[in-house]
Amino acid sequence: LVIAGGLCLTARAQVANGPWTSESPGYKLQLVGSGWNTGNQYGITSTSTTTEQRAERRYDDFSSGTHQFEGYVTVNSLGGDRICLKQTFQDDVGPWTMIAVSKSGYLYAVENGDHLANYTVGTNVRINTICYTGSAKDAIWINGSLIEYTTDGTPPYYHKFGTYRTGSGKGPITATWTNIKFWYK
To answer: What's the Cα-to-Cα distance from 173 to each of 144, 163, 166, 168, rounded to whole Å?
Structure first.
């Protein structure tokens, strides 16, 4: 029973070496502008390029350890362009890792413009990010492949996902997020 009980406390994450322990951080829903949320669906209806538009879950801060996020996202419709789907945020500084979708058919890193993966509207994609607080870096994984690192972060950090209009973006968009999981070690 002791061994079985120990197995309940740890869980194998989808990417990176473990052992990992499951966690369930708290969150707040952020709806700004035309942002909306119904169940697992998040969206922006406005085509504005000047006002803040978001529908996101903002999770609790963390300052130590290694924290992994995993979620599956399907962009159901994209009438706009350049909408952020996942962020790792520096609470006192601002966005650090931003993974966005382009109408041109790819996922990209907002900070440096790097092409992360090709993407087609209606396709389900798995996004993992792993924040290594000790070395101030955030790993981006797409469908189980390590794509790149964001470096030089400043704690505390937190995870966000949903839909957010980037500075150069505009709606509308509808996206569905499922199988959201968090781990730490």
So the answer is: 25, 8, 12, 15
Query: Which pLDDT score is estimated for 14?
Result: 76
| Mean pLDDT, residues 128-138 | 97
Answer whether 77's CB lies under 8 Å from 173's CB.
yes
What is each CA distance from 128 to 7, 86, 89, 182, in whole angstroms?
Answer: 22, 9, 15, 10
Residues whose CB falls within 8 Å of the CB of residue 93, separated by 6 or more in sequence, listed in order: 154
Dihedral sign, Cα of residue 136, residue 141, residue 146, residue 150 = negative
CA–CA gap between residue 153 and residue 130 (Å, rounded):
12
Interior angle at CA 139, CA 137 and CA 145, nearest 5:
160
3-state secondary structure of 51: coil
What is the rounded distance in angstroms from the CA atom of residue 184 to the CA atom of residue 149? 18
Residues 46-105 pLDDT 10s: 999 999 999 999 999 999 999 999 999 999 999 999 999 999 999 999 999 999 999 999
Q: What's the CA gap between 126 and 165, in Å, rounded? A: 21
